[in-house]
Structures are given as structure tokens and as C-alpha cells.
Amino acid sequence: MIAIAKSVAHTSGRNPVVLVHGIWNTASIFSILKAHLEDQGWSVYALSMTPNNGDARLETLAEQVGQFVDKCVGPQQPIDLVGFSMGGLVSRYYVQRLGGLGRVQRLVTVSAPHRGTALGLFSDRPGVRQMRPGSAFLKSLNRDLHQLEMLRFVSLWTPFDLLILPPWSSQLKVGQGRRLSVPSHNRMICDPQGLREIARSLHS
Questions:
Q1: The pTM of the whole model exceeds 0.90
Q2: What is the DSSP code string of 37-84?
Q3: Which structural domains are found in the chain, ordered by start?
């Protein structure tokens, strides 16, 4: 079951923004970011994927994103995606494998383990195994990085991240990578610098 958090603001022609959370999170983790983007005129949607504990494969969660977008935003409306942590990989799978490339115009990932995190080695949950460095899931997505050149792709990361290990695995060779001086993983979506850079990425 997909839980929905929706806010409608005056968009001034901007795409709706869909927020995709990370492991153990729900849509509520975006409360500060959602309010920040709404104040600047975006329509913001967030979903709570289930299960959120790594028991589901990331492909399954990406299907939930696709269903949510079609139902809540509409099947034709162009959108922008912000994927936090594991949500960055889920968003990429939606874009690269489930047809999202045809409607996503901007993809902003925040502290996403694009090349894996060593913490994935300490759990056998299916979704967590997919976030291990060198996993078949990551190798497959990263073989097709050229697809991300067809949209506006930005990856935000911090060297002080203790959940994405090493932190620079959030970087990719496409799009723009921006290093922020935010002191922790979760603060990337509530620290003033993180909020500013996410909004800036959606403006471009």
C-alpha cells in the first residue's frame, strides 16, 4: 500500500516535484523540504513506499513510484524527481528502466549510493544487498549512465556522510555533482545549504 502526502502550490509553470525517500524513512522525512519548495511555488508530492526496511527489491519500490506518479500527478504531466539516499537509486530505476525517462525532466539525487555503500555488506535484506558496492543492480544501472544525459541530472553529496561509505560513491560521471558541507546524511534534506541546493537544481 502506498501512502500519499500531497501539497499543491502555485507552480508558475514549474513541473510538479515528486520526493522519494530512503530506507527506513516515510514521506514525513520531507516535511521541511516540502514546505521550503512550496514556499517557492512548487507543487510537491511525496509517497511512502512499503516495505521501507530493505525487504523489497528496489525494482519493486520503483514500480510503486511509477504507480504513484500516474495516479497522483497524471500519466502525461512532466515531473521532476528528488531522490534521497536509497530513493535516489529507486528514482534512477524508474527513469532508466520503467519509462520515466519520457516524462522526468529533472532528477536530483541527494546522498544516494550510486556506486554502493559498505553498510550494505552488513544486511542480507534483498534491497540492502542491491546497494552493496559492485552489486548486479548497480552495475546494470551504471552501464546505462548515458540515459541520464537526456535530462537534467544533479547529484548532491557531503563528505561527512556516515551512511554512504565512502561518501564520494554518490558521484557519477554524468550530470552535475555538487559537494556540500552538510554535517550528516539526514541533514542534507533539512540543512539550509541542502535546501538551497535542491531548489537551485530544480530551478535550472
A1: yes
A2: HHHTT--EEEEE-SS-SS-S-HHHHHHHHHHHIIIII-SS--EEEEEE
A3: 3-203 (3.40.50.1820)
